[in-house]
Every structure is written in C-alpha cells, then in structure tokens.
C-alpha cells in the first residue's frame, strides 16, 4: 500500500512539473509546435481547459495555469495526508 501511495504522489508531482514546462514553453515562439510541445499539449490541455473556462485571462496574462498548479499541489498534499493517515 505504501508503494501505491508513493507512486500516486510522485505521478502528481511529475504532472505538475509537466504543467510548468508547458507553461514556460508559451514564452518561446514555436516551442509548442515542436514534438515535445505537442506531447505536453495533449497531456496538459485537458487539465487546464476547465480552469480557463472559469478564470478569464487578465489582458494578456492567463492566470488559470497558476490556479491549476495550486489545485494539483493541494491534491498531492491531500493524497499524502490520506495515505499516511491510513497507513500509520
């Protein structure tokens, strides 16, 4: 059970790093058109889309990815607390 908890938490942390990489790619022209950018787009856009529907961009700045990363980190912390309280 401990291995499952670690795998889930590690997966959530890796996904948050993928989101950060995808967000940083928007600063470089043509980076999202590369094969890595397209792969990250297929992985990250389904998670970011609901946040973009709820939070409109403020001028040229889209703050919905920041909220998405915060929610993902809260989910990882919640999973950590849940699994560790069950196991110990």
Task: Summarize the structure in words.
This protein has 88 residues and is mostly helical. The protein has one domain. It is built from 3 helices and no strands. It has helices spanning 2-25, 35-54, 64-87. Helix 1 (2-25) crosses helix 2 and helix 1 (2-25) packs antiparallel against helix 3 (64-87).
Which strand-content bin applies to the residues?
Answer: under 5%
Outline type: globular
- Describe the largest sheet: none
Number of alpha- plus pi-helical segments: 3
Tell how many strands the DSSP assignment holds. Answer: 0
Distance between the termini: 11 Å
Mean pLDDT: 92
Proportion in helices: over 70%
How many structural units, i.e. domains? 1
Which stretches are poorly predicted, pLDDT < 50 over at least 5 residues? none
Offer a quick outline of the entry.
With 88 residues, this protein is mainly α.
List keywords for this structure.
88 residues, mainly alpha, 3 helices
Ordered list of secondary-structure elements with their pairings:
Elements: H1 2-25, H2 35-54, H3 64-87
């Amino acid at each position: 059970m401990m291995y499952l908890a670690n795998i889930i938490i590690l997966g959530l942390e890796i996904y948050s790093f993928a989101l950060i990489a995808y967000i940083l790619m928007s600063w470089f022209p043509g980076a999202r058109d590369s094969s890595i950018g397209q792969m990250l787009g297929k992985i990250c856009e389904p998670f970011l889309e609901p946040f973009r529907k709820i939070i409109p961009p403020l001028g040229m700045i889209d703050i919905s990815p920041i909220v998405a990363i915060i929610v993902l980190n809260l989910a990882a912390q919640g999973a950590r607390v849940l699994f560790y309280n069950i196991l110990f």
